[in-house]
Design brief:
The chain is an alpha/beta fold. The chain contains eleven helices and six strands.
Length: 216
Amino acid sequence: MRSVVFDVGETLVDETRIFARWADRLGVPRLAFFGLMGGVMARGRPLMDAFRLVKPGFRLEEEVAAWRAEDPGTLADGFDEHDLYPDVRPALAELRAMGLGVVVAGNQPAQARAALEAMDLPVDAVHVSEEWGLEKPDPAFFERVVREVGAAPGEIAYVGDRLDNDVLPARAAGMATVLLRRGMQGYLHADDPDAKRADLVADSLTDIPAWIAGRR
């Protein structure tokens, strides 16, 4: 194992505050909105269906643009240092101390890269889907990960909270995979029979260094 690549949402970043702000903007109680998101995901429907159920005709790009125009200088749908999960820095630092490459690559808008880089995380590079013009689970996304990391697929571990977007396509690309049990989808997917296809199902990012050490 030479490198570990991390997803962003609900892997590194706790999205609670983001979705709470969306609930407020859409004018729906936060608990109701969180429950609605969980309900659509449990049915295998896209997360955006929760937004469209609250606001028929919802279009993410238009809503985000309007929000930023109305509230310039605020986080709006973004995130910052306060949204990092507490295990992120210790785990990434330990992996770096082991001599491993540490990379972030996830489905995120372009501005997310600047937000992540501003946190000064112990990583070698940050990549986001919008800048690549590729989104998970497209196999081309994982091919791009391999090229950017500069290692053979079997020397890379991909870490994420989802089977469909993270574990299964990364595994198909030849990578080792870690399914993280957190976030609405992480807990749901860890209970799926396909979770057995992950090389590791982890409760915390701090589980990963010991797992890699064991593989060595």
